[in-house]
Design a protein that fits this description.
The protein has one domain: Alpha-Beta Barrel (TIM Barrel), CATH 3.20.20.210. A 6-stranded parallel beta sheet has the order 7-8-9-10-11-12. Strands 1-6 form a two-stranded parallel sheet. It is an alpha/beta fold. The protein starts with 19 loop residues before the first helix and ends with a helix. It is globular, with a radius of gyration of 19 Å. The longest helix has 21 residues. 40% of the residues lie in helices and 16% in strands.
Length: 371
């Protein structure tokens, strides 16, 4: 088992653009032109290739690019007992573009079961070596919680959970079980992807919740509660990080706003080992909220954008790292892109070569800053 732990000085969030061979195989499988076995063979081949590429670039963390899923978050939820989904052609508005998402809702109490993602992790783990460690990404407990209480799901959820507190308990306990499943499979590096904190920053979010008659401070307490409940009983030698995002669909975003209003919760009190933070443009605000980060956490600065192909200026990024170091010591800072390259299988608006160029830049800058 690899002794390397995440984050690494040069790191990445996890998802990669889907290769054309994978897209074609998915279309052929859905059209009934190839069998599930034939489709899975292509997926295995493409995962193997993308892991090889990560190693060729000199990265010490490897992922499967999230090639086995359609959505970064919903596919995981479908692996929980009590959750169902269907494609009704609906979705969520992302800065003027509709993100097409499956309706995902409760049909019973949430309970853990043998999760298919654990088997996906086992395939990835075989590629670990003395220089690399396999990281797996799943949506944060708070993301699952929020999915079940959005207005479209509220009444359905209340049939099974009269209160949010009861829902939080079942989600937290289900995640504890699944974290153990990953651990028993040899996983020592797990990342919780979390858009919930990013969705409640800024004036627009404040107005949205006010219109719904919901106290935003209560929301923050609940997000923190469900995430920390899931982390109770976490094995001491398992690193669990969290990635916070404001939405990343086809190079668009969901919300904007600085971290100031959530720092007292997630930066100070969430019991993860590190935070991957979106900081690629002005929508994320400044570094001052980093002063609230608890001393036991590492901070991965997402200063390189995955939304556009243009390469950032190296000197500008180094200057920003040094500015962040005014609030968190440099030895607890790390560098990555702000998000994945394909949070959903549609991917962002850049090519695979442009994607790899971004990662090369991350590595070059990190080596210059930290040696």
């Amino acid at each position: 088992m690899s002794n390397i732990q995440t984050p690494y000085r040069y790191d990445f969030v996890g998802s990669f653009l889907r290769p054309q061979a994978l897209k074609d195989a998915k279309a052929n499988y859905q059209a009934g032109k190839i069998s599930e076995e034939e489709f899975n063979k292509v997926v295995d081949e493409e995962v193997t290739k993308v892991v090889t590429k990560q190693k060729e670039l000199g990265f010490h963390v490897i992922t499967d690019g999230e090639f086995r899923r359609t959505f970064w978050h919903l596919d995981f939820m479908w692996g929980l007992e009590g959750v169902a989904h269907e494609n009704n052609g609906g979705g969520v508005s992302f800065n003027g573009e509709l993100a097409l998402l499956d309706d995902t809702y409760l049909v019973g109490k949430i309970k853990p079961k043998a999760h298919p993602f654990v088997e996906h992790y086992k395939f990835l783990k075989q590629f670990e070596d003395e220089n690399t460690v396999a990281k797996y990404t799943i949506p944060a407990p708070a993301q699952t919680f929020q999915q079940m209480i959005v207005p479209a799901n509220y009444e359905t959820t209340r049939k099974f959970y009269p209160t949010n507190e009861e829902l939080i308990q079942d989600i937290g306990l289900a995640y504890q079980d699944i974290i153990k499943q990953f651990y028993d499979a040899g996983c020592r590096n797990l990342q919780l992807d979390d858009c919930t904190w990013g969705a409640i920053v800024g004036d627009a979010a404040k107005q949205r919740y006010q219109a719904l008659g919901i106290d935003l401070e209560d929301v923050k307490k609940q997000l923190l509660q469900v995430n920390n409940l899931a982390l109770e009983n976490k094995p001491a030698d398992m690193v669990i990080t969290s990635h916070i995002c404001r939405g990343n669909y086809h190079s668009t975003f969901f919300t904007s706003g600085p971290y100031d209003t959530v720092a007292d919760y997630v930066f100070a009190k969430e019991n993860v080992d590190a935070l991957f933070l979106e900081y690629d443009d002005a929508r994320s605000g400044g570094f001052a909220p980093l002063a609230k980060v608890s001393p036991d956490k590492k901070i991965v600065l997402g200063l390189i954008t995955t939304k556009t192909p243009k390469l950032e200026n190296k000197e500008t990024i180094i200057k920003r790292i040094n500015n962040a170091a005014k609030y968190v010591p440099l030895d607890r800072l790390y560098l990555s892109p702000q998000c994945g390259f394909a949070s959903c299988e549609i991917g962002n608006k850049l090519t695979e070569e442009e994607q790899w160029a971004k990662l090369k830049l991350v590595k070059e800058i990190a080596e210059e800053v930290w040696g």
